[in-house]
# Entry
Amino acid sequence: MTQLSRRHLFRGAGLLAGAVALSACSTAPGGGADKQGSGKLTWWDHFQPLSDLEKELFATFAKQSGGLPVEYNVYNPEKMGQSLQLAKQSNQLPDVFTTAGVGMPPPSLNKQGWFSPLQLTDEARAQLPEGALLEGITVFGGKPYSFPQFSFRQYNALMWFNTELLGKAGLDPANPPKTYDEFRAAARAIQQKGGKGASGVVLPVKFAERMAFMVSELAQAAGAPVAAKDGIDLRTGAYVFHSDEFVNALEFILSLKQDKLIFPASPSLDARNARARWSTGVSGFFFDGAWNIGVVADSFKAFADKVGVGSILVPQPGMKPVQYAPPKGGTFWIASNSKNVEAASKLLSMILAPDYQRKLAENMDQPPVDLKAAEQAEVHPSYRKALELFGQEVFLAPSEEVRNPATSDVKAEMKPIKPGLGEIVQGAYSGKITDVRAALKQLSDKHEAERERAIGVVTQKGAKVSADDWKFPTWQPGKDFDASAYK
# Structure
């Protein structure tokens, strides 16, 4: 395998503490779109792990006919949101940007006049998989405004393992555990035979959002008809955090603690630190997304040859793991005040070229939107395996925003519910929450009430939306809900 591209320590993150200019041309900070339509193109995003690849793209673009030098700034998402708001107020948005940290869904931002339509080339359109351009997500009023850079076919709770420790425990790395019981037995064997006080599994308990994803994804694998970590039954539109699948998933995690199979320092670890500890050989298992091996290969290179990956766990033998993900939203957007829409569109179209998609895969972060491009990429075998699992197990979920864009206004109006799913997992782990089902039922009820309140607010402003917009009675498990299914 050739030398891998530079990677960093966190999914789409490993981010800088503030905005740092990484320029492919000028380095003047904070510049907005070129109002005269000449000289340069400004670009803000938060993908620090992709900075080398993006700078290479910008240099190529600048040399092409119709290309421009690119003033490139990478931001911490929190800082970026504030900077974008200020830039919008002063009509100085950069030509191209991501919406990280803004805190509002793109359909709502589009209504406020943030974006210009995107002029994708025919070649670029042909590279997009079906469903990448959907009304209400990346298309507004019949015009494309953005496209996803990464595939929706991914999840966060792949089962990564230390092949050396599995071997010492008498386990077959080519046949890792598939069920809750098999996993407990494997973790116990590692603790008994792995040596050096090895633990069964390390968990990023400190990272509430990651624990929320883990419980939700385990619940989906167990049959819960939900997508992502929203907790909404795709058939009925009701919140079902309190369903048996969620309760059992959380109780499985608690059983690992009760059996003392979890690395003791896990309550103080986020995903970055948990991964670092796992890479030293202190634990057999670690749950993470496909980007895990990219981080390991970059920052813990000596450990990379010991890494294997398996599917998300299921409660019972014979169950097929499944995950449901809503359509991936747009990644990059062109500013409404840009005078370089044509040049920006040409640059964005280059992202969809097979060669760039291949290089994107070689960063081993999130899988690229064109999963076929990864087949030619030089990547670690476990990354290729992860993408194969995603292709088999992840299905496109329906989107209320595609059915009715006004639901995005409801989402923008809804206030965060605390404690959320992640905090409930943490509370149960610490022993502060003793009745898991009751806590999850309260979470469902609070979400229902908040959504109803938000619907009332936006309908008073003239929007036509109801809780029925979240109901998809024709949805079928194990199948993609494609554009034709909305008809």
Residues 1-31, 33-37 have pLDDT under 50 and may be disordered.
